[in-house]
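Standup notes
- DV: blocked on the single-chain target, sequence here:
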Amino acid sequence: MAEGQGPDAVAAALGHIARGRAAAGATRPHERIVFTHLCVADDPWHIATATAPVCDEYSEWLGVPPDEVFLAAGDAATAPGRVRELWEAGAETVVLRPVGEEPLAQVRAALEALAVLER
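- DV (later): unblocked, structure below
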């Protein structure tokens, strides 16, 4: 699934997929990959500034207000929680697309908080 769609959209899409697979008699596993933008920072102003262009672009594309575009954004404790929300909705793989300064540091902070990387 494309960026900007949150847990509710993931769950809804999986319902459509399950019905289609059942109707088609599909038996092979279906991989569930969700892309999301990531912005890890302690300063809410920095997050808002860095993500505003992304929210504007995706709100137009998705047909939703900018504040409804889903992001994994916040401090090093909050942003990873947004990734967990996608997993809990049924995503198997979440692809992080960092926005803003120091993209590798952002990804590292998120992965460490998610306990994906060894500390």
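- Follow-up: The first strand starts at residue 33 and ends at 40.
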